[in-house]
């Protein structure tokens, strides 16, 4: 399907040691810490590794204004709406506005999240 969407460009980075990036609390989600690997020009998170502590639970259905791809690397994540548990190796690809969640993790989980925003058309 052809579109006229433009994607906002993220940082240009050569290989670097991800272990050198510190874990920081996610200011928007209790129980979640993150390693931000790249940012968009406006400073928004582009790519990150998110680590959910055991027992972390979100409330309400989630919607974003960006494309999001998520790969579960470790642990498991239970979707409370779908009543389905996803484990390491499961992948999601979401368009802006796609409803998902809420979620709960009993044992904790780690995921790679890649986000792409659309350029402002105005």
From TrEMBL:
Protein name listed in UniProt: ChrR-like cupin domain-containing protein
Gene3D superfamilies to which the protein is assigned, alphabetical: Jelly Rolls
Source organism of this protein record: Kutzneria kofuensis
Highest classification ranks of the organism: Bacteria, Bacillati, Actinomycetota, Actinomycetes, Pseudonocardiales
Top-level lineage group: Bacteria
Residue intervals of the ChrR-like cupin domain: 16-112
């Amino acid at each position: 399907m052809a579109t006229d969407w433009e994607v906002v460009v993220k940082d240009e980075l050569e290989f670097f040691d991800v272990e050198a990036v510190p874990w920081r609390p996610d200011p928007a989600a209790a129980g979640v810490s993150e390693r931000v690997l790249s940012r968009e020009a406006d400073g928004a998170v582009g790519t990150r590794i998110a680590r959910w502590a055991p027992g972390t639970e979100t409330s309400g259905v989630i919607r974003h204004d960006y494309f999001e791809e998520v790969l579960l690397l470790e642990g498991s994540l239970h979707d409370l709406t779908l009543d389905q548990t996803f484990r390491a190796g499961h992948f999601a690809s979401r368009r802006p506005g796609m409803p998902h969640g809420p979620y709960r993790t009993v044992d904790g989980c780690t995921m790679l999240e890649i986000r792409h925003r659309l350029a402002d058309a105005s």
